[in-house]
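URGENT: need a sanity check before tomorrow's submission.

F., can you look over the Aldehyde dehydrogenase record below? I want to be sure the sequence and structure line up before it goes out.
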Amino acid sequence: MTEIQELVSKQKTLFKAGKTMTHTFRNHQLQKLKDMLKRNESNIYDALKKDLNKSSYEVLMTELGFLYNEIDETMKHLRGWMTPEKVKSPTTHKGAKSYIYKQPYGVTLIISPWNYPLHLAFAPLIGAIAGGNTAVIKPSEFTSHTSQLIEKMVKETFEAKYISVVQGEKEVSEALLDEPFDYIFFTGSTQVGKKVMEKASKQLIPVTLELGGKSPCIVDSDAKIQLAARRTAWGKLINAGQTCVAPDYLLVHESIKGQFIEAFKKEVKLMYTKNPIENDDYTKIVNDQHFNRLLAYLDGENVIYGGQSDSSKEKINPTLIANVDWDSAIMQEEIFGPLLPIMTFNKLDEVVDHVEHARNPLALYYFSENIQKQEWVIKNLSFGGACINDTIMHLGNNNLPFGGIGTSGIGNYHGIHSFEAFTHRKSVVKQTTSFDLSFRYPHSKIAEKVLTKVFKK
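C-alpha cells as predicted:
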C-alpha cells in the first residue's frame, strides 16, 4: 500500500468512527485552524512575499483577512446550519414529519492553485471541517514556500488521519485522483478541471470545480469614468492580474474610450507609481513559464500603455492593448496577468456577441448609472457572479455563493454555501405508527377515489 493509499485509508477509518459528527468537535477544529493562522502570521507574510512578492496589504486583504472572517462566520452559525430542517409533508403523508439532514461526504480532496495559495487551500477546508469531513490538501508546487508552510502548519495542528497535506507535481495529483475520495474540491484552470472531472467520473465522485474564464468589464457611456477606471485598475492589478475573477478584457463605449484610457493610466500611477516594476509592493508573475507566456501575448499587438518587463524580477508593468479582436492570440484564453485588451461597442446589445465568444465567464463587471441597463445586462448575459459599478467585491460578501457556470465551474462556496458544498442534503420521512391510511394500498376500496381527489385539486 502506498503512502497516499494508507493516508486515505486512515482518514476513512477516522470518519467511519463518527468522531467528526458533533458540533463540539467541528467548532473546536475551526478554532484550531484560526489559532494556527494567528500563530504563523509572520511566516505567512514571509512565504507569500518569497513566492509572489505579495505586499502585506495584499496578503491581509486577499488571503488572511478573508479566512479570519470566514472562520468566525462559520463558527457563529454552524450549530444552526447543522440542525435538520423540517419541511412540509403533503396530504398523502398525513401523520408524517419530513426533514432534511446535512450528511458529511466523508474523506475529501482539496486541490488548490498557486495564485492565492493560502486562501484557496484553507477556504474550502473551512467548509470541509464545518461539514464534518476529513481532508487531504494538495497545494500548488509553483508556490513552494507557501506550500511548505501549509504542510508544516497543518502537521503541527491536526492529526494526519484527520487533515493532511500531500505535496508534489502532476504525478502526485494524478495518484490522488485515483483514490476513492468521497468528494473532490478543485480550484484551477478549465483545462485541468476537465481532467479532474474525468478522473472523478470513473468513480462517480461528486466534485466542485472552481475554474475561470475571460471575465468582461463593460464600461457604458453614462458611467462615472474616473471611478470606473479606478475600480477596474484595482480589480485588474490585484496580484498582478493573477486572479480568476480579474477583469480579463474591456468593452468600453466608443464615445468614452479616450477618456477612460487616460483615467486608467492616472489611477495606475496613483496606486503603483509611474514604474510599477520598481515598486516593491507590486506583485510578480509566479514563474518564468507564465512570465514568458504573457510576454508572447504582446508580440504584434498595439500596446498603448505599459508593456515594459523585467525578467530578473519576473514583473510586467500594467499594460493596455488596443485594436484587438477575437482572432487575437490574447483573446483565445484567460490572460491571468496585468495585460488588459480593449474593445469598443456603440450599442449595449453588441456586448452579447462579445461575451458569447467566451461564454459563461466566472465574473462580469458593468459600469453604468442607468438601472434599466443594469438589469438588462444581469438578465441577458450568463456569468458566475457580477458587480455593478465595481469589480471583485462580490467575493467579499460571505452571504453570496461564489462559483461559475459551465466552463467557469460547477458548484459554489463561501459562508453557508461552503458548508452546503461539503454536505449532502439527506431527505428523511418519519412516519407515524399510530394509524395507517388504507387508501395507499391496492386492496383499498376507496384508494382511487381518494387519490383522484388529492392529485386533481
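My own read: The chain is about 40% helix and 20% strand. The chain has a mean pLDDT of 95. If you see anything odd, call me.
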